[in-house]
Design brief:
The structure is a homodecamer of 147-residue chains.
Chain A (H helix, E strand, L loop, with lengths): L4 H13 L3 H8 L3 H8 L7 H10 L27 H25 L2 E15 L6 E12 L4
Helix pairs in contact in A: 2-3
EC number (chains A, B, C, D, E, F, G, H, I, J): 4.2.1.104
Keywords (chains A, B, C, D, E, F, G, H, I, J): Lyase
Catalytic activity (chains A, B, C, D, E, F, G, H, I, J): cyanate + hydrogencarbonate + 3 H(+) = NH4(+) + 2 CO2
Amino acid sequence: MAIPEITEKLLAAKKAAGVTFADLEAKVGCDEVWIASVIYRQASASKEEATKIVEAIGADPSFIEPLTECPVKGSLDPVIPTDPLIYRFYEIMQVYGMPIKTVVHEKFGDGIMSAIDFTIDVEKEEDPKGDRVKVIMCGKFLPYKKW
Amino acid sequence: MAIPEITEKLLAAKKAAGVTFADLEAKVGCDEVWIASVIYRQASASKEEATKIVEAIGADPSFIEPLTECPVKGSLDPVIPTDPLIYRFYEIMQVYGMPIKTVVHEKFGDGIMSAIDFTIDVEKEEDPKGDRVKVIMCGKFLPYKKW
Amino acid sequence: MAIPEITEKLLAAKKAAGVTFADLEAKVGCDEVWIASVIYRQASASKEEATKIVEAIGADPSFIEPLTECPVKGSLDPVIPTDPLIYRFYEIMQVYGMPIKTVVHEKFGDGIMSAIDFTIDVEKEEDPKGDRVKVIMCGKFLPYKKW
Amino acid sequence: MAIPEITEKLLAAKKAAGVTFADLEAKVGCDEVWIASVIYRQASASKEEATKIVEAIGADPSFIEPLTECPVKGSLDPVIPTDPLIYRFYEIMQVYGMPIKTVVHEKFGDGIMSAIDFTIDVEKEEDPKGDRVKVIMCGKFLPYKKW
Amino acid sequence: MAIPEITEKLLAAKKAAGVTFADLEAKVGCDEVWIASVIYRQASASKEEATKIVEAIGADPSFIEPLTECPVKGSLDPVIPTDPLIYRFYEIMQVYGMPIKTVVHEKFGDGIMSAIDFTIDVEKEEDPKGDRVKVIMCGKFLPYKKW
Amino acid sequence: MAIPEITEKLLAAKKAAGVTFADLEAKVGCDEVWIASVIYRQASASKEEATKIVEAIGADPSFIEPLTECPVKGSLDPVIPTDPLIYRFYEIMQVYGMPIKTVVHEKFGDGIMSAIDFTIDVEKEEDPKGDRVKVIMCGKFLPYKKW
Amino acid sequence: MAIPEITEKLLAAKKAAGVTFADLEAKVGCDEVWIASVIYRQASASKEEATKIVEAIGADPSFIEPLTECPVKGSLDPVIPTDPLIYRFYEIMQVYGMPIKTVVHEKFGDGIMSAIDFTIDVEKEEDPKGDRVKVIMCGKFLPYKKW
Amino acid sequence: MAIPEITEKLLAAKKAAGVTFADLEAKVGCDEVWIASVIYRQASASKEEATKIVEAIGADPSFIEPLTECPVKGSLDPVIPTDPLIYRFYEIMQVYGMPIKTVVHEKFGDGIMSAIDFTIDVEKEEDPKGDRVKVIMCGKFLPYKKW
Amino acid sequence: MAIPEITEKLLAAKKAAGVTFADLEAKVGCDEVWIASVIYRQASASKEEATKIVEAIGADPSFIEPLTECPVKGSLDPVIPTDPLIYRFYEIMQVYGMPIKTVVHEKFGDGIMSAIDFTIDVEKEEDPKGDRVKVIMCGKFLPYKKW
Amino acid sequence: MAIPEITEKLLAAKKAAGVTFADLEAKVGCDEVWIASVIYRQASASKEEATKIVEAIGADPSFIEPLTECPVKGSLDPVIPTDPLIYRFYEIMQVYGMPIKTVVHEKFGDGIMSAIDFTIDVEKEEDPKGDRVKVIMCGKFLPYKKW
């Protein structure tokens, strides 16, 4: 789970600047998860977006350009991640994968939820019995083409 | 990805009865994904819930009891599932795992989203550019205990 | 690489009927690779398409309905297939994966070639030095959504 | 997915020179995917080809010789690549591997498509509903020898 | 099983200071296993806890802050650890996993023992036939939510 | 995670008899987890113990003898179990493996906790904030022999 | 390492007939390793060849046709075979793989030895110090195509 | 597939000296594949052999001694090598492993071909239809000992 | 770890006959571990040896012939066996592999201990502090051939 | 199979001193395999033992202390080692694992051979037909505890 060097430097700058991802969302005008994805080099930004991110955390402008490059994505190691927070998503796929598949096919037909034309949000849902993490994934349904 | 025999029989009964999971949601009073999880033997139902499910699909009452048992969960094979719809969830974990982790920690502190005190919904979001699949996960935040 | 039972029966019927996939392409009006994918339970057909396929190979009409179901896809075993013809596609991904990625990003920006809104054709290119297999993949470019 | 150091330097030179792979295709007289393969050290060039590539991107002549060496090929890590663009080729092999195998055998007999006597092209197909990525693989059919 | 650099430095400081984990338990007021987890970067401390730990081993105050960060957890390599002491826990899971599962379900219903709202103690049980290692795990029972 | 046939039959008998593992503990005079281990064929019983178990659940006496055989142990599949309850023990090993190792070595010297001269208990700890699962492992410390 | 049913039946017939592979080589006019490959369903025979093989071992003529089908090849399990005789070939690849690669490239340029346009012979070399197994592989050199 | 540093230096010296492995075979009086194995640190040379090799490529005498050490052998990574030239040997083992095993047992009885008391030669066989790579393996037959 | 059917039947016969492996050693005149290897289909017997074994356990003579066949060896599953008794040999290899290698090379030169021209004995060493298992492996040293 | 830096330095010192492991056995008064295990950081020595070892090879006294630390054990990579000498132990486990298990259970009951309260010796057995490597493992039998 090697974090790229640029990510470490940008996170250090962000920390030094005392800016949260929620602050970045407000300043940059994009969702905080997406901004985190750019910083973790899982997504590429336009020059304008990269400039806003780098300026918002007070990092060196030399970091702007690298954030616009198309990264090699999917950086977790090992194949089944051991970090408990991340592993739970693997577990959800294992336990609820087939049920979701069945329900999606029944609602939409044969096809998939795109993970590219896709957004993901993380929200805090306050709850007296303990706050809840809400993760909202929304991807275009792509029907299988026949030819 | 061996589907248990009971699942195949219940799905066949459901098909013969012409009932959708959405119908089951209305009849049973539980979410359709959860009902699918019971049928795929990833979740256990109470006797009442199992009875409603089995009756709603017109299956034999002998299926009620097995649905109340605590199953061995997580049935996908191989370790990284090949079915494209299910794989996308693996991909989402790979690409967005670290960004989500960072944002959750910033919002909640050190801990995880529970995959047990957890719900998952699948919705169809109509969109002129192509309908979208919305998957809403909501799990209790569990802070790491110190001792 | 367990072939589903229905696939074996349909292939036997096709053989008995003396029909090639090229014949099926002509009779059904769909590409032969796609028809093979339906028979190998990697794609789902409409009732009309399934009927044409089943009739064209003289199989029992009871096979029509199963061909319309959304299959669990990706049936190769082990994780890196050993069959030489199929392995070569793994090798092509290993050797040419990064070069293709670079060229696609340069031509299209950050995103992927869809494997869902996707067609694949296999053609025979006659060549005096030895005939050639031409595999033409054509998938919609899906740009990464930002949000 | 460790990119060799020489690749990083050549890509940096190419970027500084503002040359695209399409430009290189025109200047070097070879396909852009093949040139990318040479730069990613998946293919070896002749001295003349290497010289043209290195000159076209304005890199140091000391890079010419290394590009003529026979590389150890297939550099992706892990075994099932996580980058979504590259993974789709794994998925295509998983889903369409057996159908392609069947059709190739029917058209050509027992044998394989060579991945050595082989070319691969990437084209942009403009389409009002969204441009498409066209990947054309063309390999000599190699019939199994009997002895 | 790469030990993070900070861990090595803190362990060296601890050794130089001649302090045992049992001493740390007394000085910091937290369990020794938890303190070891903080030092191995498997758990995050509050600023106060981190200060106490760093002071107790006489390390540089610059180490305080890093100990408050939420680490990427689960650092063992390979997937099945080879160190005999650690492997035994894998073996216990293999041999007693199903029996424990059955007994927990019978005692508590469908759900799990949390590994987050969780404590673990290691005690020495003196025994004339040979001292015994006692490991006490105590995690909140989390019943599966239905929805 | 194939449950042996004999296990399924004994569990069915136990269910029909309406006996819990706690009941078995009382009747057989051995810990319930150990009895479950015998039934899951992870431990071997003496003829007397086997007889008591089989009688207590009203199963056929022909099951006595097989329970005395030394089984091939460790039946979980895949290598990293997917069942959430069982996986948590893998996670505990991943997260707390090195901290436990350090503390054990400090308390006992170089050696391990035996998983053979070993007992494991599962207890319910009532707690107003939610009951807790207590798992107590107790294994003989085995110091590394020098020779 | 599941041997196909047809292989088992043909080997049984061959045994009953008291015919060795060397006899088959003489009767069929093809190499004994190739004939063994046909029987193990790793190679496909023409109708004439299949007929000769089936007749030579006195098997039922219904086995002729299946031997002409293009098999899914590469049947060893697990990924690194454990049978000592077969494993040695894995070891040879591990130990001598890079040296062979270097020598082949020096002798032939960039390319490979085909495993399709390929023959393999097994000979007994008598030697007073112990007979030797001679395995002669001979494959067409395939130079990498440039395009 | 990390090449040891000493290998890289010796190969560079060999290149600078303009010596081929065939030249080395003539000068050293050993087979070129074996010499390559020594250089790739898969085999150990005597002092005399090492001296001849090092002198023949004009390398520093300090390299002599390391070549006499018994190396840790088998350096390919990953477990199934991706380099097409080397992979073909894996494929040959997969496809022809069982047929070879059968023929060897029939010719020699139960035992194996040694990969230690073993030689391997690579020859170029000129052929108007395309030159062929001939790989001759010759290992002592080792019968299984009974005791 | 699927035990072959013939093994199960022979073990059942052996049990019914009340014969231990030590008895078999006396009756057959071969080591008990080797006889167990024949029964587990890891070694092949001569007709005479097989006859003695089958008669000594009172099994049907039809079992004689199959015991003379050369088996596919190495039947443990998964790749790293989970049975604690068997796993310990994996652990010994992991922990003492390199030390043994060094000592063997120092004593014998470059080469290996044969696992084919090899015997293995299991003895009980009585010891007041607890009996000990003695496993004596004895294999011919095979020096690496140079050529 | 990364050898720790300290191991490399100690082996270099040992070589410079011209001391064999057999010499070390005589000087230190411990078995040579155990001493090699200490140097390879698979075992920990007492201060006295470490001092003797370090002095016997003429290494710097600063190496004494690190040799007394409890190492993370089991350093082989990959999971199934490729070095032929070490692999043979894996093969022995695969081929003779079940036969040994059966014989041990028959001789001792249910339990294992300890790999901790364990010694291993390597001896040279001179033999006119070729010297033999004798590896004697001797571990305490640990019976499974019942509770």
